[in-house]
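Final report, closing paragraph on structural work. Over the funding period we assembled a curated collection of sequence-structure pairs, and we close with a single example.
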Amino acid sequence: MSTVLVIGAGSALARAALPVFTKDNTIITAGRKDCDVYCDINKSVEIPSGVDVVVNFAANFGGTSDEAITAAVETNVLGTLRICEAVKKAQLKQLVLVSSIFAALDESSPSYSIYALTKKHADELAVFYCKLHEIPLTILRPSRIYGDDDSFAKNQPFLYQIVDKAQRGEDIVLYGKHDARRNYIHSADLAEIINRVISRQVAGVFACTAPEDATYSHIAKSAQHSFGRGSTVTFAHDKPDIPDDVFPADYSLYDKIDYRPSVSIDDGLRRIKEYREKGTA
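Its predicted structure, as stored:
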């Protein structure tokens, strides 16, 4: 059992992961509000005594304004450096950074953004710094993350818009003639992956994707089936095509931790439906 400092503990993913972490570890939460210790990685990072592992969930998704770009650089790149420096000072046995599969993108991708760029720079900086100072480092690059509650909707708006329409029994219209593919990983799977990475002290840079990609039409029909409200899925052929945005399969991490994501997109949509029903019961 390790004592784990969870930075960015107020994020949607961290909140979903904490119950899993507590099964095998002592947890100290860190963030700007409602946490065990105050931590603003844009200013400074102090690690309490007795901590063995740091897991960082903090991130800034940026935007296109000068202020948004600066904020993304400050949090994702410089914030990561501050965490690395604090881990070095505390002489911890492991640092786990939750990055993004978008860190592997280049400027030719339609999903390239300041978020992707700063995540890439943060990963490279962490690898350089931790190698220089012999810090065991794990970087996890998940695909699109979703979960049972609507706290994930902010960063996955299109998925939850489909769910909302299916719940209301409304028709779902997809743009273009192409049935775009996406890869979504459920927060429950990602929480278990991180927990196993901690317990087995796996180091390296790894992609974390679901075993199967899903088309938008499949997601829409699955959501409709889950709620059973009855509606149609059509394509607006006069609108621009939505391109695929999927990634090469890489299961090297899963072999090391003896675990593969088990929540399919169909299972995940049913979980969202069940969660919402509980909330209105």
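The chain has a mean pLDDT of 95. The chain is about 40% helix and 20% strand. We thank the funder for supporting this effort.
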